[in-house]
Structures are given as structure tokens and as C-alpha cells.
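Sat 14:20. Reprocessing the chain from the morning session after the first attempt stalled halfway. Input below, unchanged.
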Amino acid sequence: MPITEFLVRNAELYGSELCLTEINLDLQERHNVIWREYELIENNPAGEYRRDMTWRVFDEKANRLANLLIKRGIKKGDKVAILLMNCLEWLPIYFGILKAGAVAVPMNFRYTAEEIKYCLNLSDTVALIFGPEFIGRLETIYDQIPNVKMLFFAGEGRPSFAESYDRLTANCSSEDPKIPLTDDDDAAIYFSSGTTGFPKAILHSHRSLVSACYTEQKHHGQTREDNFLCIPPLYHTGAKMHWFGSLLSGSKAVLLRGIKPDWILRTVSEEKITIVWLLVPWAQDILDAIERGDVKLEDYDLSQWRLMHIGAQPVPPSLIHRWKKYFPNHQYDTNYGLSESIGPGCVHLGVENIHKVGAIGLPGYNWEAKIVDENGNPVVQGEVGELAVKGPGVMKCYYKDPEATAAVLRDGWLHTGDMARQDEDGFIYLVDRKKDVIISGGENIYPVQIEDFLRSHSAIKDAAVIGLPDPRLGEIAAAIIELKPGCLCTEEEINAFCIQLPRYKRPRRIIFDQVPRNPTGKIEKPKLREKYGAKCLVAAQIEEKIE
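Finished this time. C-alpha cells:
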């Protein structure tokens, strides 16, 4: 059945119960400053810092958007994009698109204007719903996206080139349009990139989305009594597919806008959160804040918090050992997945297997996994090969890219591009990535984009960007820069030049050296990793032993 049926069911069974809460503690802190200085609570310009939604209202809002899209001529299979920060409107908009029979196209809020344009055109998007944070970027490209016939703005301060999402949906019916949907119907497009940095459009069916609901709930046992804290961006398959466990169980979730340790712990305490999904940097920040004395655990009621799980990047075992020191009663799990496999869950550690911390785990619920050589044949247990997975959440294809699809989908198996090995108990460990993508704090960084940018500097002859180990972010981007003969340039000058890049793409380390290339002109990155990565690895191992 289509995933929208879960929402319909929850609205019927639990209609008056809260399902989603948005919390913005930055607004609350600004509110408190205003109150202290002016004692004008009733005129608080900071706005609401907590907003709630029931299952019935969630379903009605989804229906209103679906009816608006249908009224405007959106047909089954049309693509409708979402460009929003995490907010209470995000999930009703996603489900409204699905209820219209359309394909939801979530977009990374870090995208530049050019990346937004590229992805809208690549996915054949015909309508876009966006928030106030993206007005400036869209102003520069809205006349360069010919397929996009409708621009809907959600929020205050509507730009002249868009229509009001709030006003238009308020005048639409809240009744379900009842568009016939099947498991095989297209449901969503997510974006991913390889080493070239050019996004691929990953097409998933309703079957994929539903499979994520069952896999997540099976792994983490969500019940009606649970309350899930969602911090990562909803455009990402990881955050949303973990929330799908809440959708299946009809339980509550909180969207927290912010990652400060105190904010996370306060929200867990005040909202009686039971399940939290963190990225490695956030978990480390919480532990560091505890050890510095910036937060005191006795100030919070965390007794109901039962599960902390981590995904999106390799997890240092030392981090979990530290975590268990302060939270000895927590269950812990880690999840491995790709957007091509509908996010996390195709491999997972399992809460009962904390003794195997360091592994990504075993095949997930309803999933198979194997490690193969370059010919697709299984390797001997213990040997390194490429991880391949198979299950109901595997993508249908890379949209409009049959060649790329054929390269990774073979006989129903998704070849991940990640190199792995399996121990004697069947647990899978990641060893390295085939691709050169750098994963820093859960975000993918594509070296070619940064290299091309660096080469535009007048003093730079060549540049190579590699990932180096980092105890907090997993990896950082390091730029090896070869200067033109006779040119002088400092690290400070390079950093100033890189201000033009989005913050997360800026190299964290600058190294002046020659860039080695093989006879065919390709950068020999393994040599660079061996040369510079070994030093970082030794430092990380020393830190691991100390901890």
C-alpha cells in the first residue's frame, strides 16, 4: 500500500493526539532577553518557539496542498520540489505532494543557486515550495527554470515572483482527494553525487518508502509511547526515514531547530524524548560540554531516554565508550545506508550488539548484504571487497540516467561503492570508499568542485582535495596546492579566497606540495592519503588509546 495510508490511518485512530512539535530554542532565548530588558512578553517580536500539530491537522494540511496541486493541473507522476528548513510544515507538504499522486523532490538547503537550478531542471520539477531563507538564491534563477510553472512561498515576506502557499492552501478542501496509488508508483526523488560532484536524481517508489517504515520500526521498536527527537535536515533520507518509525507506530516526534548540547538535553528532558538520532559531532559536543562542566546532567530529567543511535558517518568506538560512561542505561545502535537504499537500515548494528562497536553491523530487516570482488563474485570472509545490498528499499533508478543506473544495479543488487570486510561472526566493517567523496559531519563534500574552484586562483597551478581523519567530524577536507613557478601564496590568502565557497565546502587544512598525477592525467590521491593521512591516523590512534 502507498505510504500515505499510514497518515490516513493515524488521523482516524489518533486524530486529536499530538504527532509533531517544532521547537526553536533560539527564539525562546531571544524572547527571554526581550522580556528581561523590556518586560514586553505580550509584544514578543521573536515569535513562537514551540508549535504543535495533531494527526488530524497533519492529514488535513496534506489534503489541502494535494487539492491545490490538483486544481493547478498537477498530474500523477509530476515532480514537486521542497526547499525548506526543518519546520512544522515540512512533512505535511511532503505528504500533500504524495497524496496528489505527484513525486516529492526534497532539496538540500545548502545548495547554491546554481545547484538548485541544476537539480530542478534535472528532475523535471514543475512546482517548487520554498521558504524565506531561499528568496535570495531563487531571485537569481527563477527565470532560468523553464519547467517550473509554479512557485509557492511558505512564510512571511512573500517575494513578488511567488504565490502564497499559506493563503492558497487555506482556501482548499481538507478532504482526501483519493488519488489511486500503488506500491510501484513513483513517490520521491532524492539527490546524491559521485566524485564528479554532479547530483544524480534517485527515484524511489511507494514500496521503498513503506519498507523504510517497517525496517526502522523493527530495528528500534517504536511504540505509541515513544517520542522521537529529529534534529537532522528532513530533506535527507536519514532523518525522514527514522521518523517513518514514528509514522508506523503512531507516536510523537519533535523537530528541534538547533544543535547546542543544552538545547538537545533540555528538549529531551522537557518533552520526555525516548529516542534520539545524533550525528557524531553532536554526540561529541554533548560529551565535551559535560566534561567541561558547561552542562550538568543533574539539571535534566533524562530517565525516559532509552535509545541513542548514530548514522551518516563512521562512528569512533571511543565515542561510544565515553557515551556509555555518562549514559550507562542507554541502548545504542548505528545505521548504514545510502539515498539509493532509501536511507539508513540496509545494514545496522542492532541494540543487542554493542560489543561489536566499530562495525556497521548486519543486514537490516528485509535486507541482504554481500561483499564482492570487481567481477561481482563474493570474496572470502575476512577479505576486503565492495559492499552490495539488496532489499525492498533499493531505488528504481537514477532518473533519466540508464548508464549510471546499470553501473550500480545488477540483478537487483545495489553496489554501494564502499569497500568493506566481514568478520567471523558475519558483522560488516567499512574499510574505505571507492569514491573520493569526503563525509564530514554527515555531509558529503565533493573534491572536484573544490579543486576546480581552487584552480581559478591566479597563483595556483594544480590542486587536489582529500579527506583526512578528524576525531569530531569523521573527516575534514584537506587541499594540497601546487603553486605556479615563481608565485608566492600563504595559507591565510587561500583561506580568504575560499570564503566564496559555502562554509562546509571550505578546506579545513591547506598543504603546499606538488600534486602527483598518473600517465593518464588522473590525480594519484592514494599517494596523497598515504603521505598525509598516516600522520592524522597516528594522532587519532593515540587519542583513541588515551580515551
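Residues 448 and 547 are 35 Å apart (CA to CA).
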